[in-house]
Structure formats: C-alpha cells, structure tokens
Amino acid sequence: MRTGGEVVESGLPGPGLVRDVFSYLIPPLLEAYGGILVAHEKIGDDAAEWGAALADRLERGPGAPDGGAEESDGGAAGEPAPADVVVTTGGTGKGGSDHLRDIVAAMGGRLLVDGVAMRPGHPTVLAELPDGRFFLGLPGNPLAAVVGLATVGEPLLAALSGRTPVEPIELPSGEAFEPELRRTRVIPFRRMYGMASPAAGIGSGMLRGLARADGFMVVPPHGLELAAPVPCLPLPWGRPLGGHAPSSASPAQKARPKRRPAASKDPVDWSALDA
C-alpha cells in the first residue's frame, strides 16, 4: 500500500510532489523474496483513510497462501482475500501525518520493531496484530524502503514460508569507513576485484546506485579498515557473492597474479582478479 498525498503516478511532479516508484519497485522484490502479491493501492495522509484501509484487511476472511504478502486490501466477495502481511510505504515516521503506530495500537496489535539503528531505513516498523497478521511499514524514501524490506521484511517472509533467510556473506571491504556511533550503515555495493566497494548514487532517495548493485554491505558503527571483512547481503538481481569469503591471506595477496618476467611472451594470467 503506497501512502502520501504528495505521490503522483504520471507526468512531471509539481512543487512538493514526487513520482511514484514503489508500484514498480516493491512488488517484484516481494515476489523475489517468496511473497505472493494480492494487490496494491494508494491512499493519502488522512488518519481516517489509513484506519479504514488497514482495518478493511482484517474483515475480509482468511489470509492468503503461506508466504503471501500484500500492499493493499482485498475486494468484496470473489476478489482476493487479504494476505498474511500488509506492506505500507511511507508514514512510518513520528510526524503529524504518520499514523501506523496509532492504528496498530487501536487494533490491539504490538510493535515488534519500532525503528532500526541503521542508515538508511531507520523508520522501518514491524507490527503483529492479535490474529497473527503482520504490518510491515517501510520508509517513504526509495532506497530506505528497500533496505527495510531486505533487512526486516525478507526474514519475516522467510519465516512465514518456512525457508531459511538470506545469509550474509563476508567480503573484504574496498573502502575504509570512519566510525559512526550508534548506527549501522547499509550501503549498496558492487563487487570489484573480489572486494565490496560502495556504489555511486546511493542517497536515501536515490535508486541509480541500487540498480547496479550486487548487494548491501553492512558497515558496523565502529567503522572498517580497508580490506577488513564486512557482512554483505545479496540482492535478487546482483551477481552471486559466494566463493569470495576472506581467508588468512590478505586480499592483495590473493588478488596478485604470479610474477611474470618482462621478456615473457606468455599471455598474462588475470584469473585472480574479479570483474
């Protein structure tokens, strides 16, 4: 369910408006993580509209098949029933137009995750309702929403469908990071020469770097030295990350090809380097 009166679906956005990206971004990701999309819709910022849209999902019968996830309510008789997970985008902050927490409380639900100490994606919210249904609230910025889905939504969908969650893989960091206390950085990266290097264009509201990324590198609050091992989460469209876990040898030692005499006419062996 996309939220926000400032979101427009076509044309050039005017002042204070933004184009809808979530309709094209979130459904394929939900399906890639094993969800079964029922439907999706857009609502505004009014609290009554939020309450009606979310409460409607509780009154329309049993949930969708195992592993189901939805972004909208089901319809009347004959239309798809609501799923086990309702995903919202936007409205997870604590401002005047953010109503998810109040609605969860009014429905007798409980917050399982009320914000995560990470950047981007800090305002991600996960709630459980009395009937066992879940609300997953993703932030309104596109990259932040994908980070929330990959770090909180993917393990939820894995648990509901009985599969093992995506496991992080350690790669050597291609960049040094200064400490940023009390917050973990989740950064789109490209695997280059066997190392995880931050992609370009990775602001919270940007998707350019994410589109070319192989995964997310999870930088701890205390920072990283160059070539230090860093946990990396793969993305559905990224290249496989396996087979590059760091060993006792340094990345430079592992990547350095065997010394070749300058006068040699044999071809250069580049097999130790990743593209």
Q: What radius of gyration results from the CA coordinates?
A: 22 Å
Number of helices: 6
Mean pLDDT: 81
Number of strands: 16
User: What's the end-to-end separation, in Å?
Assistant: 39 Å
**Elements, N to C (H/E):** EEEHEEHEEHEEEEHEEEHEEH
Structural class of the helix and strand makeup?
alpha/beta
The amount of helix comes to: 10-25%
Largest sheet, described in full? 6 strands, mixed
Runs in which pLDDT lies below 50 for 5 or more consecutive residues are 58-67, 72-77, 244-250
* Beta fraction: 15-25%
Globular, elongated, flat, extended or rod-shaped: what is the shape?
globular
What does this structure look like?
The chain is an alpha/beta fold. It is built from six helices and 16 strands. The protein has helices spanning 22-32, 47-56, 100-106, 142-161, 208-211, 251-255, and strands at residues 2-3, 7-8, 18-19, 37-40, 42-43, 69-71, 85-89, 110-114, 118-119, 125-128, 134-138, 169-172, 184-192, 195-198, 215-219, 229-234. Strands 9, 12, 13, 14, 15 and 16 form a six-stranded mixed β-sheet that branches. A four-stranded mixed β-sheet has the order 7-11-10-8, with helices on both faces. Helix 1 runs parallel beside helix 4 (142-161). The longest helix has 20 residues, at 142-161. The radius of gyration is 22 Å and the shape is globular. Mean pLDDT is 81; it is low at 58-67, 72-77 and 244-250.
